[in-house]
Amino acid sequence: MENVQLKKQLAGEYPFGFHDDVKNVYEFKKGLDEDVVRKISKIKNEPEWMLTRRLDALKIFQSKPTPTWGADLSHIDFDDIIYYVRPTDKPARSWDDVPEKMKQTFEKLGIPEAERKFLAGAGAQYDSESVYHKLREDLEKQGVVFLDMDSGLREHEDIVKKYFGSVIPSSDNKFAALNTAVWSGGSFLYVPKGVHVEVPLQAYFRINTKNMGQFERTLIIAEPGSSVHYLEGCFTAGTPIQTIEGTKPIENVTADDHVFTHKNRFRKVKRTQVRPYSGKLYKITYFGDSTQQIEATNEHPFWAVRRKKSEYTNTEWKPEWVAAEKLDPHDYLGIPINREVRTEEYRSFIVKAYNAKKRNFEPKHIVLKTDMDFFRLIGYYLAEGTVTGDHYVHFTFNVKEREYIEDVKALCEKYLGKKPLEMAEYNHGISLILCSTDAARVFSKQFGKHAAYKRVPHWVMEEAPEKQAKLVKGFWRGDGNYLSARYSSGFKNVFRMNTISEKLARQIRDMLLRNDILAGLNRWKRTGNRKDAYAVHIGGKYVDDFSKMVGTNEEVANEPGVKALMFNRQGTRASFGQIVGNYAFVPIRSIETREVENSSVYNFSVDEDESYVAGGVAVHNCSSPTYTSDSLHSAVVEIIALEGSRVQYTTIQNWYSDVYNLVTKRAKAYKDATMFWLDGNIGSKVTMKYPSVLLMEPGARGEVVSVALAGKGQHQDAGAKIFHLASNTSSLITSKSISKDGGRTTYRGKVYVSPTATNVKSNVECDALILDEKSASDTVPYMEIQSDDVSISHEASVSKLDSEKLFYLQSRGLSEEKAKQLLVQGFIEPFVKKLPMEYAVELNRLVDMEMEGSVG
To answer: Which CATH code, of 3.40.1350.10, 1.10.150.120, 2.60.40.780, 2.170.16.10, is assigned to 241-337+586-620?
Structure first.
């Protein structure tokens, strides 16, 4: 899959237009003739047949005129282009072997070490040559070949000779001939029969030399029954995700949710994804939370510290993104701590919004004060309170807890306007009953009506930690105890608080984290039909801090045995985890794997941070693409999808605004094979690109989904071509285009059905969005149907932004610019939802940036 990352335009500048002072091994003079072609072939030590093809292609290039039927190409000066620059002697098979200056360049362009670890294969091209190519060992053992094109020619000459130019001959067009004459670099991918490549194979491109032309060649062969498909990291159903309203299963997360990220803040979910997955799942458990087991695909990144227990006192805490398959037991997983404290005005707004969402009304006689004592009352209610009949608030205590009983009476009188009635003793218990409809509704809606539904609303979760400490104190008084737990190294003193509400247990633990106390969480099954119970427990070095928080007997809490490690059976460490700054780190207990077939897995994109908390720990949702710029890009991509195979090829190009992007991409799909092009065009001065599929045999299927955005000075001339050369074939073309600030988009497509093809189905949809009077859009469809047994449809539309929708969004508080961004994102959603996650994320970001300043 080609990966040309999205630029981040700020203030109209292209931030990756830097030049590196690299001493090239070879750099040719400008211009193209036979001598240049012969030198390229000689330097590469190519076989004679490849030189012959190059020279024949050069003659075709020189004989064909520059096309005039599409975008304006009259300003291309072929004599002012450098056709070959070689920065290094040979491609490296290890990233450490890449020359340092080039390595620094790719780091600048945004290819992090973590991304390379998550790829099945990665390639990097610098000017004319590949400087790095590497395939994962397990795929190599299955016979998959992923090399730079030059190495592919040397090591697999018979395969290259058979297929090179078989899909796109030199005579096809002027720029295909140019590429064949001077091609250099690119990728060679061969997938053997029945092998499925289900992790990323990506290539990165960088042009460093001024007036340099890049002419990479890509050849992909998928043998019968094989597949090449980009798949990203995901989680299985049921994985709990931390949202602004508490945890929810990942399959229930929607684009309206706000999730907690590794940057210790809540951010909006932009897009969700579910897909079938076949392969290995990693089940990870960690110390300190027996309720959690996280199951993820092998490449999903976790925020982790690579270390062993023996290194506890000697290693700095430096978290990094680590793929699930690279984690080891005793590595530490990161738990982000929410340190944010909201203002009084924000808390008031949250309370009102929450009530409206639950169809509740604001009480007339009760003001939810947020001083220290009120939070202690909340804690009492969460532990010992219930609401009955929508009119009564009950508190239940043991007869020996007279201090707490009197405290609740005083707090109710202070905040709720009356004292509760004390009922007679029954079975060593005392009931306090407050008759107040307003109070009953407030406590029911805000904190839960019964024990199993107890919770803490979001506005409380973002109160000051010292106030939350008072809540925990009230809760501990009602449902807490202090005991000695038996371990192999002896008895350890711990605090414990119990509840049958899992949500509340996690919220109590989170409030403790905000007070720099790391607590554990256990779940145990109860007999009969009773709900599971949860215990929040505090041990080790955090006992002292908790003791001071709840005001227990410090002499008892400071006994020598109390400071022993709760989870360490040897009793030699200070804690089972560590709070460092805004994170808690806990060690992995176990990692198990299992194989699944067509199992549903889930993931989603998050605004800005692209991370979230799953199963209690921080995870990333994807990796990032890279960036590039040059002056002429004329590539050729040939794909051969043999019987029963499936190939997906995804591109998002975002070249700098002086680049002519002239690319020929074509695939042949044989019996029951599927070819799927996903093609995005955002940058460049001119793009002419029409991904094509030749459906060669019955059962073949082709699909092209594309989007183009043209701004000032841009012409995106793009589309698709499908050739039905056999019966029982089908195709789908979906095209979305947007033009703004005087930009021009053109859909140019073709559907051909041969006279002998029957039972052919094809559907073409072309939608254009024009954002202002200066911009333009053209649709140039061509259909050549030579058979009667077909079902062909074509739909086309040209429109402007809906003024009523704009007004509606602005009436909800959005600026005109933001409202336009949302409508444009909705317009291209059919394209975006089919993209791999990281492409969808970056495409949405880029569209937002391209839309900046489009008002007026």
So the answer is: 2.170.16.10
